[in-house]
Amino acid sequence: MAEALQNVNVLPSSNSKKRPNPNDSNRDDFVAKKPPTSNKPNWEDPVSALANARHEFGEHGGVNMSIEASATFTVMEPETLSRMFAGELGPDRDFFIYSRHFNPTVLNLGRQMAALEGTEAAYCTSSGMSAISSVILQLVSSGDHIVASQTLYGGTHALLTHFLPRSSNITTTFVDIRDLEKTKEAIVEGRTKVLYFESMSNPTLTVANIPELSRIAHEKGVTVVVDNTFAPMVVSPARMGADVVVHSISKYISGGADIIAGAVCGPASLVNSLMDLHQGAFMLLGPTMNAKVAFELSERIPHLGLRIKEHCHRALVYAQRMKKMGLKVIYPGLEDHPDHHLLKSIANKDYGYGGMLCLDMGTEARANKLMNLLQNHTQFGLMAVSLGYYETLMSCSGSSTSSELNEEEQALAGISPGLVRMSIGYSGTLEQRWAQFEKALSRLQDSGLFSKN
């Protein structure tokens, strides 16, 4: 099927025939023409790239695309089906087999994700973890090796530490990716297949030097996979050398805390291999995205840039004010953050420094007391995992989203017992929410559990 899938990242023409003639050699009916040179996307700006991507119209001329809710697809001639399974006809010609393979609505969402990340192609899945696990299993075989950041989302860390060694004989060496020399030394030539890290780490907000890490990996023939869940729009890993970008779309890209979804963005050859009928992880493991979910998400991506800017603006203002109050705040937008200048040098202009910040309260008891006050007494935010919601979400990372790491692993990752991870929302006014934070902190100080001194 590889030949038929070579153009999975190419948008069919809006007036393409719904039931094309399989023998029609005029591909102009099916393949979008390249835009004039003057209209090429500005690859420095994700919003510009999205605006330059083709808009998919509905079947009857609707401004929104139609939802292709079918699990399976009919053909007009019996011979067509065999040709599709033989790889002679595929989505680039508007031929579809089954929605576990390619679905037109999900394919369009993938094109939006590819534009957002500046990659050749992308395809979306039922969750972030399904995207991560599928791409790793596609790139790494039994007996192979991965080098990964020691600071990762707990689920990813558990996948690499426990599941893959047991199920697939795939091992991982964890390193401090800030130490480029140690990262280079951890790569075993001929055996290491993937260098895996997060553009902005969960939860400690370490910023990856994507250009240098990509250079080191590529010198050794290693594929670079970057989780960009914390920093869509803010950072564009593929434009700095990363080979593959993965997302939990459930977070910022969804924005509503109501959808679970993921994405893999990268070369068309990778998406093709993931969809291969015989050896593709997406095809055979079945992490299929529902077409109705894909439609909803496609309607949210156009205003992602506006949402990200407000998330980031508020996070910076709160972090600056928290620091002035004497709190131990971790935020890469602050000049005293060790990665501030790095992020400033690699970030896309005008989108800020991320919508996540951390408060280190020292102990879990203080962290829990503060979160209780912030939710139940002043309504500043909600105690919940995940991120990217319009309300502020708070969790004590060590006992929640990073609980898969043991005490030693948490210490190596820089996760203190009292680290409160905050996904800063944008509901209410900035000053209204700040007053709620100050009120909760004042109550905490009055309780004797915490002092700025």
UniProtKB/TrEMBL annotation:
<protein>
    <recommendedName>
        <fullName>Methionine gamma-lyase</fullName>
    </recommendedName>
</protein>
<feature type="compositionally biased region" description="Polar residues">
    <location>
        <begin position="1"/>
        <end position="15"/>
    </location>
</feature>
<dbReference type="InterPro" id="IPR015424">
    <property type="entry name" value="PyrdxlP-dep_Trfase"/>
</dbReference>
<feature type="region of interest" description="Disordered">
    <location>
        <begin position="1"/>
        <end position="45"/>
    </location>
</feature>
<dbReference type="GO" id="GO:0019346">
    <property type="term" value="P:transsulfuration"/>
</dbReference>
<keyword id="KW-0663">Pyridoxal phosphate</keyword>
<dbReference type="GO" id="GO:0030170">
    <property type="term" value="F:pyridoxal phosphate binding"/>
</dbReference>
<dbReference type="InterPro" id="IPR015422">
    <property type="entry name" value="PyrdxlP-dep_Trfase_small"/>
</dbReference>
<dbReference type="GO" id="GO:0016846">
    <property type="term" value="F:carbon-sulfur lyase activity"/>
</dbReference>
<dbReference type="InterPro" id="IPR000277">
    <property type="entry name" value="Cys/Met-Metab_PyrdxlP-dep_enz"/>
</dbReference>
<feature type="modified residue" description="N6-(pyridoxal phosphate)lysine">
    <location>
        <position position="251"/>
    </location>
</feature>
<dbReference type="InterPro" id="IPR015421">
    <property type="entry name" value="PyrdxlP-dep_Trfase_major"/>
</dbReference>
<dbReference type="GO" id="GO:0005737">
    <property type="term" value="C:cytoplasm"/>
</dbReference>
<dbReference type="Pfam" id="PF01053">
    <property type="entry name" value="Cys_Met_Meta_PP"/>
</dbReference>
<comment type="similarity">
    <text>Belongs to the trans-sulfuration enzymes family.</text>
</comment>
